């Protein structure tokens, strides 16, 4: 029987597919870091971070309340407790007031969808150790046995996925005052009782039960990844877990892993690299500049306004990153109106300018100062120039684009092509229309047919 060239090609293709499907990752960073990042993550660009837990009850200072009160013994936190709570009041006594009686996951999902975010990451457990689901290893320190008496992780996940958004879970590896962890720490991390009995069982349970699209690991910095058994967990996650083909993870898996190992890099909180990286990355940022969680003593001047948030989003995407923006709900389960206003404002801007954000990549030139700062993104043969200040003039020059006879320039939100002329060396001069009002003070020029 004669074998045709097309049959050989088909056989080689099938062989390649089998090889890829059959590939298994070994529990070492060389193997794990070779895993391609699932494509959905780079496409979505913008997500919402939700910091919610027992710390939302005192709602003072930051989500690190317990540590600043009992660990660092910060005078502001100590005095807050003396003035407002009786002697002998413990942190555990806050939990019954984390009742979340107004928590409506569908209402939250509506707000997140309206923000234009494409993924949501909820704190399943912060450093305080309280789990927002009924963890069987939580010693009843969880949202099912205490406080809300409901599965917060599951309830929000169901609502988020009904909207077609990706759902991720934040999980802190360590716990400030867990006696098992403190015992391991005392041994110089030569013992692993806490890892074997608490940290890893929780992670396996979260993945098996809720099938998150993303795991945002944290609380890793005091011990090496060998203590946490991180590579063993990730090998299971990539090879055998129910989310092995879609799950995305960050880089916080042990002391020294930041910006070095993992699916994508967080590096540091509120990371601003100022340049292109050779690896996918994400900036996490909070609307409240002081705290990731809700605090009752926040001031309006301490919040990022809408133009700041949109500028931050644009800058991050132009440099190839994702933007994960945190809001802190109240202990009652309410997203404060000022946070909702910010999120809906971002969504209104993305309704018009989203094609310059979603599914784009960084361009050969990321930014230029064309009288006002301009940030570039690209999608195939289309280039977007986003400017976050009104140039206050009729013409606008961009030096980076190389025009052709087929170049078409439009202002997003306005279908009529704009008049333009090439500059002598490179670039173009665009005749701007009267710019429509933008609460974010940001507009986008779409340039088709430029190099």
TrEMBL record:
Cellular compartments annotated: Lysosome
Enzyme Commission numbers on file: 3.2.1.51
Catalytic reaction(s) noted: a neolactoside IV(2)-alpha-Fuc-nLc4Cer(d18:1(4E)) + H2O = a neolactoside nLc4Cer(d18:1(4E)) + L-fucose; a neolactoside IV(2)-alpha-Fuc-nLc4Cer(d18:0) + H2O = a neolactoside nLc4Cer(d18:0) + L-fucose; an alpha-L-fucoside + H2O = L-fucose + an alcohol
Enzyme class per UniProt: hydrolase
Gene for this chain: fuca1.1
Subunit comment: Homotetramer.
Function: Alpha-L-fucosidase is responsible for hydrolyzing the alpha-1,6-linked fucose joined to the reducing-end N-acetylglucosamine of the carbohydrate moieties of glycoproteins.
Record-linked InterPro entries: FUC_metazoa-typ (IPR016286), Fucosidase_C (IPR031919), GH (IPR017853), Glyco_hydro_29 (IPR000933), Glyco_hydro_29_CS (IPR018526), Glyco_hydro_29_N (IPR057739), Glyco_hydro_b (IPR013780)
Primary site of residence: other
Transmembrane segments: 46-69
Family: Belongs to the glycosyl hydrolase 29 family.
Superkingdom assignment: Eukaryota
One Pfam family recorded for the sequence: Alpha_L_fucos
GO biological process terms on file: fucose metabolic process; glycoside catabolic process; lipid metabolic process
Keywords assigned: Glycoprotein, Glycosidase, Hydrolase, Lipid metabolism, Lysosome, Membrane, Signal, Transmembrane, Transmembrane helix
PROSITE patterns linked to this entry: ALPHA_L_FUCOSIDASE
Residues in Glycoside hydrolase family 29 N-terminal domain copies: 22-355
Name the record gives this protein: Alpha-L-fucosidase
GO CC annotations, alphabetized: lysosome
Domain Alpha-L-fucosidase C-terminal, residue spans: 366-448
May be important for catalysis, annotated site positions: 284
MF terms (GO), sorted A to Z: alpha-L-fucosidase activity
Signal peptide: 1-23
